[in-house]
Design goal:
about 150 residues, mainly beta, Virus Head Decoration Protein, Chain: A, 9-stranded antiparallel beta sheet, about 35% strand
C-alpha cells in the first residue's frame, strides 16, 4: 500500500538571505539548519553541521527576500532528498550527511565518521552511484550522531 511517509513536519520562518550564494531561493528536498542568531532556517551544505530536517517545498528568491516566508520542513519520518554533486557510493542502508556546492548544494552524500548524519537511505537508489540531482528516500534519524559517537 502506498501512502504518506511523513511523521512530523513543521513550518519554519526562512532567513531572508537564505542560501546567499544562489539566486534560486528555497529549493525542495535540501537539508536545512537553524540560524542560531535569528532562529530561522537556512540551507545546510556542511557535512559536519547538524540539519534540523529537509525542506519540502520550493519558494522563489523574490518571496524569500521579503523575510516573511514560512517553509515546510520534514523533521522526522521518510523524505525525498536531493543527491549532492559528489555523493560517493550510496546504497540502501547507507548513512548520509548534508553536502554540496553548486546546483545540488544542500543535497546529501555518503556519510563518513566525522559527518553529522541526516539519516539512512531506504528508497530507490539507482544501480551504481546515484547521479548528482537524483532524488532518494531517506529515513531521518534525529540524534543518531549523538548515539553513534
Amino acid at each position: 500500500m502506498a501512502g504518506a511517509n511523513y511523521v512530523l513536519d513543521k513550518g519554519f520562518d526562512v532567513l531572508s538571505t537564505y542560501n546567499s550564494s544562489a539566486a534560486a531561493g528555497v529549493l525542495a528536498y535540501r537539508c536545512v539548519a537553524i540560524n542560531s542568531t535569528t532562529g530561522k532556517i537556512d540551507l545546510n551544505a556542511t557535512a559536519t553541521a547538524f540539519s534540523i530536517g529537509v525542506v519540502q517545498e520550493s519558494v522563489d528568491a523574490t518571496k524569500v527576500a521579503t523575510g516573511k516566508v514560512v517553509a515546510d520542513v520534514r523533521l522526522m519520518g521518510i523524505t525525498k532528498v536531493r543527491v549532492s554533486d559528489t555523493p560517493g557510493t550510496i546504497v540502501l542502508g547507507s548513512r548520509v550527511a548534508p553536502s554540496g556546492t553548486g546546483a545540488n548544494s544542500g543535497g546529501v552524500k555518503l556519510a563518513v565518521t566525522t559527518n553529522a548524519v541526516l539519516g539512512i537511505v531506504v528508497g530507490p537508489v539507482p544501480i551504481g552511484t546515484p547521479a548528482a540531482g537524483d532524488l532518494i528516500d531517506v529515513l531521518l534519524t534525529p540524534g543518531v550522531g549523538a548515539i553513534l559517537s
